[in-house]
Design brief:
- It is an enzyme of class 3 (hydrolase).
- It comes from Pristionchus fissidentatus.
- It catalyses: GTP + H2O = GDP + phosphate + H(+).
- Its EC number is 3.6.5.2.
- This is small monomeric GTPase.
- The protein has helices at about 25-30, 75-80, 90-105, 135-145, 160-175, 190-200, 235-240, and strands spanning about 10-15, 45-55, 55-65, 80-90, 120-125, 150, 205, 220.
- It is of the alpha/beta class.
- It has an 8-stranded mixed beta sheet, sandwiched between helices.
- It binds guanosine-5'-triphosphate.
- Guanosine-5'-triphosphate (GTP) binds near residues 22, 25, 37 and 128.
Length: about 240
């Protein structure tokens, strides 16, 4: 059993993909188990949640990216342990966009990266099956081309689907075999909250929200330290829960 002072592992998950494929909705569903349609999609944020992977507590940090077409995409490349490249099964352009991202990522020079990267290509909106234009086979073909894992889900559907995508993938790729990077170790949950709030211009613990009682053991959000140069304020979730 883990001692209370033992460091917690931290894994970084970045969601990439064309606008409107459901990246923000995916993260909000993972954090709150709810499908939420109203939020500000122009903000880039990092959200964290404590999970159990292979029976071990792990801090899962999810980055909701915007503007994947900008030249700043490289910063996700060094931040992430797992990249979830999302496309919309009802939009073939979103798969082409995902493919371009995968191509760029495959050309990235990883020798200086502090962590090994894994990628999951994820087709979203399977609840809109009647409007499907990208077959599962086509998604699998692209994933195989870039040696990625592949899955499909509906963020609008059962919350377990989204949880399984994240936790199942993390268990597969970062289960007991993986050790955390020393630069990303924190001694305890409280130290994590403290250290994050020092870095952040704001930090809020979602655990204190009565509207989230059924959700995660620990979920808080922060502005990503690596994105400090971005002049964006506020947060999708803050906006959401304060309305
Ligand atoms: N039917 C259906 N709609 C979805 C699903 N996931 C997301 N949506 C909707 O798709 C739209 C786009 O979702 P977002 O989460 O804002 O997409 P995004 O990729 O974050 O978009 P940007 O913030 O512009 O990058 C919203 O209207 C969502 O409600 C899904 O699984 N099924």
């Amino acid at each position: 059993m883990r001692s209370p002072t033992a460091p917690l592992k931290e894994v970084h998950v970045a969601l990439l993909g064309q606008s409107q494929v459901g990246k923000s909705a995916f993260i909000l569903k993972y954090l709150t188990k709810r499908f939420i349609g109203e939020y500000d999609g122009t903000l880039e944020e990092t959200y964290c949640k404590q999970e159990s992977i292979d029976g071990e507590p792990v801090i899962v940090c999810l980055m909701d990216t915007v503007d994947c077409e900008s030249g700043e995409w490289l910063r996700w490349q060094t931040w992430g342990d797992l990249f979830i490249v999302v496309y919309d099964i009802t939009c073939s352009k979103s798969l082409s966009f995902a493919e371009k991202l995968l191509e760029r990522m495959s050309k990235h020079e990883h020798t200086l990266c502090p962590r090994e990267h894994k990628t999951l290509l994820l087709g979203n909106k399977t609840d809109l099956e009647r409007y499907r234009v990208v077959s599962e086979e086509e998604g699998r073909r692209v994933a195989a081309l870039y040696s990625c894992m592949f899955d499909e889900c509906s963020v609008a559907g059962d919350a377990r689907g989204v949880n399984e995508v994240v936790n199942g993938t993390l268990t597969t790729v970062f289960g007991k075999k993986r050790s955390a990077s020393p630069t990303r170790l924190c001694a305890s949950d409280s130290e994590i909250s403290t250290s994050q709030s020092r870095k952040s211009t704001f930090s809020v613990t979602l655990r204190s929200s009565s509207r989230l009682k059924e959700s995660s053991k620990l979920a808080y959000l922060q502005k990503s330290p690596s994105l400090s140069k971005m002049n964006k304020t506020g947060s999708k979730l803050l906006k959401l829960f304060h309305n």
